[in-house]
Amino acid sequence: MVLVVALIMVEIVLRGAFATSTFIMDEFVGYGVAAITFLSLGYALESGSLIRVNVLLTHLGNGIVRRLVEAFCVGTTLALAVFIAWYFWKSVARSWARGSVSETVAQVPLWIPEGLVLIGLSIFALQLLAYLLRVLTGGQLIGDDITAEGHGE
Amino acid sequence: QTKWDMPNEYSATSIHGEGDVYFAGKLKELSGGKIEIVHHFGGALGYKSKDQLDAVGDGAVPIANTFVAPLGGVENLFLLSSLPFVAVTHAEARQLYETAKPYYEKIFAKYNQKLLYSSPWPPSGLWGKKPLDSMDALKAVKLRTYDVPGTQTFRAAGAAPVQLSWADVVPQLGTGGIDAVLTSAEAGLSSRFNEHLSHFTEINYASPLNMVTINLDTWNALSPELQQAVTKAAAAADEHTWAAMAARVDQNYQEAAKRGVQVVTEAPAGYRAALSKFGAAALADWKSSMGSDGEAIVSKYRTRVGRAE
Amino acid sequence: MDAFLTGLAVLGLIVLYIGLGTWVFAGLMLVSVTSLGLILDFPVDRIGAIAKSILWRSSSTWELVAIPLFIWMGEIIFRTDIADRLFRGLTPFVARIPGGLLHTNVTGCTLFAAVSGSSAATTAMVGKITSSALADRNYDTNLSIGSLAGAGSLGLLIPPSIVMIVYGVLAEVSISRLFAAGLLPGLLIAGLYSGYIMLRCFINPELSPKGDERYRLTDRLRAILDLSPVLALIVIVLGGMYAGLVTPSEAAAVGVTATLAITVLMRELTWRIFVDSLMGAVKVSCMVCSILVAAALLSTAMGYLHVPAELAKAIDALSLSPYQLLLMLALFYIMLGLFLDGISIVVMSLPITFPLATMAGFDPVWFGIFLVLMVELGQVTPPVGFNLFVLQGITGHPIGRIAYAALPFFALMCLGVVIITLFPDIALWLPRQMFG
Ligand code: NA
Ligand code: NA
C-alpha cells in the first residue's frame, strides 16, 4: 500500500513538473489493489474484520448446533476458495506457458500479478482449513475471541 | 432455439454496437429464429476486451466483440491494426485487415475460437485547443495517448504524451491537466470533448480493429445449415461495418461542425510525413517481434495498396 | 414474469447464505456460483472460467484504489490528534445548533464527496473519524450511524463521481454537465439531512449532549487553530484536483501523503501509529474490496440470467405516462438496489431504460442525476448495501441495526428524488449557466 501511494505521487510529480509520465501507474496500482485485497484475506479473516451477519450465530449460544452451522459456513467458503484458486492456478499456468505479458510499456508477465492472487487465495484456504478443524475439535471460534479481547487491535 | 450472450465493451450506439445489432438481426433471419443474440453492451457482463480472448476460448461466453489492441501482449499480431500511419485511408485499413486475415484466423484457432467479422474504429486524430497541424503546434502539448507506439511517436515529435484512464480524461480536460487527446472524432464527440476543445486535426493516425469471434466448441456443435447461417450473417456484418465506418467519418465531421468544433483536414504534407517517420520505429519494432510473418504481412499489404512506405 | 421470479430466487439465496452467517463476500460469490449452476445449468468449467475472469478484472482496476487509500487516510487521522482537534475545534461553532457535532457527519461527508468518487470510500473515511468520537460524546447512535450511511452516499452525487462517469460514457451525455448537475441536488439532500437532525434534536434534546457553555472570541480563535490541520488537508486535496494537478483517482494518494506530512509536522506520527494505521486500513479495505469484487461477480451472474434487461423490457411493454414510468423505474431500481452494486445497476439497465426515459421527454442529464440517486438508495438497503457493510466493519454494530438507523435517511433521499422531479431545474440550472 505504501508502494502504491509512492507510485501515484511519483506519477503526479512527473506529470506536473516534468510533463511526462510513468506510463505504467494505473497498471501497477491495479495489481497492487488486487494483491492487497487477496493477500490480506487470511489476516482479515483471523482478526474478525471480514464482516458477516451473525444474528443467527449469536442466538445459537455455544453448543453443538452453533458449531455445525459454523462448520457449514467455513466448509462452503473453503470449497469456494479452493474452486476459485483452482481456476486461477489454471490461468497462471497458462499465462506462464504462453509467455503472455501486459500490453503496456512495462510488459509485465501476466502470471506474476495473477500469481499473487493465487497465493492470497491459497493462504486464505489454508486458514479456513485450520479454522474448520478448530471448529470441529471444539477450539475457539473467530467471533468469540474478538468480544473476549474487547476488539483489541 | 438457443440464446447467445454476447459482450461488447462499447455502447450500443458505437459503430461496433450497431454492427452487433445488425449481425444479430441477420442471424435471426438466416437461422429461421433458431439463434438469438442477447447483447451486453458497455461492458455490462463485466468483461473488458482484454479478458475476452480467454472468455471466448474457455466458453465463458459463446461469442464476443473484442477490441484487439490490448491483446498485443498475448499475441503481437493484434498490434498490427493500431500501428501508427501504416494504413491512413479507409481503403488501406480494409486492405490491411484483408491481408492479415489468414494470420488472424490461425491465431484465433490456437485460442479455441473462430473469427467471424471485424468492425473498424474511425481513424484517430488530434483533439486540441488549437489546430495541431505542425511540429511547432505540437511542441510541449500535454497529449493523452492510449498505447505504447502512440506514446513513442508523439514523444519523438516533441509533444508531452501522458497516459490516463479514459474515465479521467474529461475531468482532466475540464481542469486543464491535459490539453489534447489522440482519439477519433467520433469518440471525442460522444464524450462531449467539444465543451473543452475547439479543434480536431485529422492525421489518420490509425484505424484499430474490433473483432468478433465465436467459441469453437459452440461452432462445432452447430448443424451445417446453422454454420452457414452464421457465416453468411458474419459476412454481411463485415460489409455493413466497413461501409458504416466511411459514412460515419463524414457524419462525425458534420456533427463536429454543428457543435462548433473546427475540423482541420488539410495538414501540410510535410508534417504528416514527419510524424510517419517517427511512427516508423514502431513498425520496425513490431516486424522484428513477429519474425517472418511480420515481413510477409507488410510486404503483401504494400503490394496490394501500391504504397512503398 | 420469469425475470421477476428469478430475481426473487436469487434474493432468497442471498438471504439464506448470508443469514446463516457466511462471510458476506463469500456468501455473494456462493450465490453467484450457485445460481449459474442451478438456474442456468452452466457446466463447472464455464462457471470457473467466468468467476476467475470477473474476479481478476474487478479486483485489478485502478479506480478501486481510492478505497484503500482513503480508508488509510481516515485511519491515520483517527489515530492521531487531528481527529480530536477537529471535534474540539468545531464544538464552539456548533454549540448553539440543535444536533451539535452530529452535523460533522453530514458536512464531513459532503466535503469528502467533493474529493472522492465513490460512496464506500467516503463513508469509510468519515465514519472512521467520527463514529467513535460521537459515541464517546454521548450522541445518539442511531442518528450518528444513520446520517453516516445517508450522507456517505453523497460521494456519488457530488462531483467527482464514478457512477456519473460510467453513465456519461454509456449514454453519451457530457460528464462535465453531469458533474455540474449533481452539485445542487447533493447540497439539497445534505440540507435535508441536517434539517432532519436539527428537528429530531430540537424535539428530543436527549439525542445530543448539552452544549450550554459560553464561548468567547479567544475560544473561537483557538478553535480555528485546532481546525487548521483538517482545513489544510481539504485545501491541498481539493485545490490540487480543481487546479488540474491531480486526477480525481489520484486525489486519495495526495490525501494520504498530505496527512502523513501534517502529522510529521505536528510531531504526532510515530512508527507505531504508522504501522497500526496501515494494518487497520488493510483489514478494512480487504473487507470492502472483497465484497465489491464479489458483488461484481453477482452482477455478472444476474447479467447471464438476463434479470435487469427482462425487467426493464417488461416496464417498456406497459406503455406508461411519463410520471408513471418514472415511478415504475424508481421501484425497479430500488428492487435492483437490494442486491446489486451501483455501477452494475447503471450498466445493465441503461440500454433499455435510457431510451424509455428520453422518449418520455426527460432530459438526459436530469435522468443521470435521477439514476445516481437511485444508486445511492441501493447503497443503504439490505441485504446488499455497501454503506451498511462499511459501517458494520467500522462500528461493529449488526447490519440490521444499521439498516434501521439508515431508514429515515433513505426516506429523506426519496423525498429528495421527489423534489428534483418536481423542480428539475435544481439539477439543470447550474450546467445551463456553465455551458449554455
Ligand atoms: Na464525489
Ligand atoms: Na442495497
- Provide the low-confidence segments of chain C as ranges: none
Strand content of chain C: under 5%
Helix and strand sequence of chain C: HHHHHHHHHHHHHHHHHHHHH
Instruction: Figure out the total of helices of chain A.
Output: 7
What binds here, in terms of ligands, is:
sodium ion
Total strand segments of chain A: 0
* Class based on secondary structure composition and strand pairing of chain C: mainly alpha
Mean model confidence by pLDDT of chain C:
85
N-to-C order of helices and strands of chain A: HHHHHHH
Largest sheet of chain C: none
Fraction of helical residues of chain A: over 70%
Helical residue percent band of chain C: over 70%
Roughly what is the average pLDDT of chain A, rounded to an integer?
79
How large is the share of residues in beta strands of chain A? under 5%
Report the principal-axis shape of chain C: globular
Overall SS class of chain A: mainly alpha
Largest interface: A-C, 56 and 59 residues
| Strand segment tally of chain C | 0
Tell me which oligomeric state these chains represent.
heterotrimer
Overview features:
B: 309 residues; alpha/beta; six-stranded mixed beta sheet; C: 436 residues; mainly alpha; 0% strand; globular; binds sodium ion
Task: Give a structural overview.
The complex is a heterotrimer of chains A (about 150), B (about 300) and C (about 425). Chain A is mainly α. Chain A has helices at about 1-20, 25-40, 40-45, 55-60, 65-100, 110-135, 140-150. The two termini of chain A are about 20 Å apart. The mean pLDDT of chain B is about 90. Chain B is of the alpha/beta class and about 300 residues long. Chain C has about 425 residues and is mainly α. Chain C has one domain (about 1-435). In chain C, helix 12 (about 215-240) packs antiparallel against helix 13 (about 250-265). The longest helix of chain C is centred in the middle third of the chain and has 35 residues, at about 270-305. Classes of the chains: A mainly alpha (about 150), B alpha/beta (about 300), C mainly alpha (about 425). Chains in contact: A-B, A-C, B-C. Chains A and C meet through helix 1, helix 2, helix 3, helix 4 and helix 5 of A and helix 1, helix 2, helix 3, helix 4 and helix 13 of C.
